[in-house]
Design a protein that fits this description.
The structure is a homodimer.
Chain A lengths: L11 E2 L3 E2 L30 E2 L2 H8 L6 E4 L9 H11 L5 E5 L9 H6 L3 E6 L4 H10 L6 E3 L2 H10 L6 E5 L2 E3 L4 E2 L13 H7 L2 E6 L2 E2 L15 E4 L20 H17 L8 E3 L3 H16 L4 E8 L1 H8 L3 E9 L7 H4 L3 E3 L2 H5 L13 E4 L3 E3 L4 E2 L15 H7 L2 E5 L3 E2 L2 E2 L1 E2 L14 E4 L2 E4 L4 H9 L7 H12 L7 E10 L5 E8 L2
Parallel strand pairs in A: 3-13, 4-5, 4-8, 5-6, 6-7, 7-27, 8-11, 9-12, 11-13, 14-18, 15-16, 16-17, 18-21, 19-24, 21-25
Antiparallel strand pairs in A: 1-2, 9-10, 19-20, 22-23, 25-26, 27-28
Helix pairs in contact in A: 7-8
């Protein structure tokens, strides 16, 4: 069968199940009930404290074949997942499915446990580095990786598409009953939006902390009613690595040129006025756009209502400068601002469901005026890829891009037309991650294009003397310089499945022929 | 059949269902899943704002025979329930079950709608005044009232014993998507712990506000993922009536005498040391106990960890004086301290589930060192009544008493031995609300008694030269002065059912023969 972005899909994939093809961004309306949740019981005087992760795993009842979950707020500094998987391995448990909000460089060590059969399945919003390369090339993981958006992940948990047997939550501050927050302690990372849904639906929830606080914790992000066990560990990881280079403002002149063009488009949109809302993905160019927007806002005394998403240090600066009323934060991108949630009453934490879940009673992503996104590729049909490279290998993340693209009034892609002689504007993206109907404008250093269905945007840009071009012409212009990369060859083995946020399938990723 | 507190119960009650008899405070361990929750869907650009309560009721799909829920944080000032029921009546909807966290004097007007058949069933933690009297005497309500504790109410919702079709939440501050808090705006009441479970399990949730704030609200107690519709009304009620006389410190000399005796018992307990936790019910004597405890704490430089429960102005004073680390608040008792949750970072809000739910992964009530309670009656078996008077009429509330009594290390009843020539110490309470196994000490102006199973407490008190007496002797001493009130006569009609917090039945209340 062929889905709405023209991808040919099998009816069924072993290790995944039957496939529902993507049918458009809001085509699926969920029916029926959310996943069932087990009832609990807790005596007065009972304790949740266990001495070791191994004890917690044994007590949790984790068995081979089960699913465990993690969150990636500690980013490149995360030491939680590896400690838990090590302990699982020691106990002789195998065939485990890891469902994590994402994988980072901190998780390369998991590859070893894939090789030894401890981990046989992964669900995530992204995967990079050596592990991604090995899975893409050798198909070493027995089951295909299921890639979900941040909103799609919590939707899947709530809908029961994923049943978490044991959720592990890294808690930078935690008391003996499991009341916790993410913004106090040696491994403070800030907002802890991702596990908020896990703890509601997992059969067993284990909190790991390196900072046990007196009961009850004063500032609670996830409360004791959701936690089964608390384990004090030496460390949750390396807080210095929570800040990632991907969140610093660019000084690269061509990125700044591109950002300036994007800012001009946004200014022309007429959306940048008092009370506007805004989100930008990670990456230097997106941040540079913020810099130019700031200038415009200051010159014209404009104050935005909210900026959302992963929150970086620059957005905290904008908040503290009074340029936005509020930051709504699912994940703080930078360890240096981990305390901002505490320090700034206007910097608030939200769950991943409040951020981006397409099947709840409303999410922030659906209230955005402007979303700025980057990509690894965008094609002449406006389909976007941010997960794989043009070599076909997994090397990125879906994140919240498809969620916010679907929700925002203007979704603006800001990408260079080529990178290192590779065209970013392509005939057909290697894999579709954000579907074309949800992408409105493409700003590149070689031209600006508007989705054919957004005549309103074309009119606005032209009225503001911003030249636009047909994306097919841009493609020709780019590939004249870069040439057309040769087609990638794949084996039949499916190594990844790209789910749209509503649980339908956008694309499948096959093993590369090497 | 006869339950563990010796009450004869029918197997089945029409309008309630099959009865599970009370079997002890922790005899019931829940099995299976929590109640199912419907999936949802919300488009970008969709609005939740409806113009009138009637519109919201129509849009919600409310029909005759359904269940609606309310919370009573606005106490005697609540104008929400009556506005909603008026609108329901206007729409010709009948046979409605109201499940509210409690009924107050503000709800007397509901009697009219009982008479007209709009309201045919009530579930609550308490009922007073004219409506209670009329139901007790005439049996005017077609179905028996189900009385539940604050913990038992959320347990019942989570377990699916109660299915809420439409929950109405009074929101003193609210934005267009339903992000809300209880501590900002003209009708600010403070913590909003009761509806937190309702909004998770109700099919439809309607927020009513008289203070629509820009989106998104900065300080969120219940977030938009749980709210279907928002209606702006002229007023949520009368904020001046949120403060209730029941929460002021007594100046009555005999109450102070009693309070002093209770404080001496607590001091002797050895529990009053750094890090102790504490809760006291409403009522002048309980508050007076706090005053004496404060003196002792100040003299001995003792700082408690937390005080919990309904939080009154005096506890805020203790917090601000540094005598407790933290206040954990499900319901702020006094409008004058509605902003304390905001002003004091150590005054935090908790859900009713975190407060007292016996079937979750732990609650604050189970972590209490000391609980001080009042009662309308206590009998020679230590069973306690706080719901009905010795005349058999409903006139009080269960509240969180059975929850905290079950959880606290020492549960201390502080009551006068008689009130207006009526014995408070009786042979057999009119109705059992808090079962004897969960009550440890009884302090009266005519003597102190200890539950026979708490030899440890007897030893401690005697070692501290605090005289104790057998409760049967106290009973004789009291009734020598008061005489023994004549037995109440009842009809066969059941007007109320007293559920224990675990969903079993403690007692049934029959219509009084008049």
């Amino acid at each position: 069968m062929i889905n709405k972005v023209g991808i040919e899909l099998p009816e069924h994939i072993e290790g995944y199940g039957d496939i529902i093809p993507y049918q458009g961004p809001f085509a699926i309306k969920p029916v029926g009930d959310k996943a069932p949740v087990k009832q609990s019981f807790f005596f007065p005087g009972q304790t949740k404290l266990l001495s070791t992760i191994e004890d917690a795993i044994k007590t949790s009842g984790l068995k081979s074949g089960m699913t465990i979950s993690f969150h990636h707020h500690l980013r490149d500094g995360d030491g939680v997942m590896i400690q838990v998987v090590e302990a699982i391995s020691k106990l002789g448990i195998k065939d485990i499915h890891i469902n994590s909000s994402s994988f980072t460089n901190a998780h390369e060590g998991i590859l070893e446990y894939i090789k030894s059969g401890v981990i046989t399945k992964i669900s995530t919003s992204g995967l990079r580095g050596k592990m991604a390369e090995e899975i893409s090339k050798t198909g070493i993981l027995p089951h295909p990786i299921v890639f979900r958006t941040h909103g799609g992940r919590v939707r899947a948990i709530e809908a029961g598409d994923v049943k978490i047997d044991v959720a592990f939550v890294g808690a930078p501050a935690c008391d003996k009953m499991g009341n916790m927050n993410g913004h106090e302690g040696p491994c403070a990372f800030g907002a802890m939006g991702y596990p908020m849904t896990d703890v509601c639906y997992a059969n067993v929830v284990v909190a790991l902390t390196d900072n046990l606080q007196p009961y009850p914790l004063k500032d609670i992000s996830i409360d004791q009613t959701h936690i089964d066990y608390v384990v004090v560990v030496e460390s949750l990881g390396d807080p210095a690595k929570i800040a990632s280079g991907a969140t610093r403002i660019s000084t690269n002149p061509s990125e700044l040129f591109l950002a300036k063009k994007a800012a001009n488009v946004l200014i022309a949109s007429g959306l940048i006025q008092n009370g506007f809302s805004f989100q930008a993905g990670a990456g230097g160019a997106a941040l540079a756009v913020c810099r130019y927007l700031r200038e415009y806002m200051e010159e014209n005394s404009i104050k935005g209502s909210f900026a959302s998403g992963g929150i970086n240090a620059y957005l905290v600066e904008l908040l503290e400068a009074g340029l936005f009323d509020i930051l709504v934060d699912v994940q703080t991108f930078d360890g240096t601002i981990a305390d901002s949630v505490k320090r700034n009453p206007n910097h608030i934490e939200m769950s991943a469901s409040m951020y981006a879940n397409p099947h709840n009673k409303s999410c922030i992503a659906h209230e955005l005026d402007i979303m700025i996104l980057s990509a690894t590729e965008i094609d002449v049909n406006f389909n976007v890829n941010s997960l794989t490279g043009s070599h076909g290998m997994i090397m990125g993340a879906i994140g919240g891009a498809p969620d916010t693209a679907a929700g925002a009034k203007w979704t603006v892609m800001v990408v260079p037309a080529m990178r290192k002689r590779l065209p970013i504007i392509v005939d057909k993206v290697t894999h579709v991650v954000t579907p074309n109907e949800t992408v409105d404008v493409l700003v590149t250093d070689m031209g600006i294009c508007v989705h054919p269905q957004r005549q309103d945007i074309k009119d606005i840009l032209l009225a503001n003397n911003i030249p636009i071009m047909d994306i097919k012409d841009l493609y020709k212009k780019v590939t004249k310089l870069t040439g057309i990369p040769k087609k990638i060859e794949y084996t039949d083995k499916i190594v990844g499945i790209v789910e749209y946020r509503d649980g339908t399938v956008l694309d499948i990723i096959r093993q590369i022929k090497t």
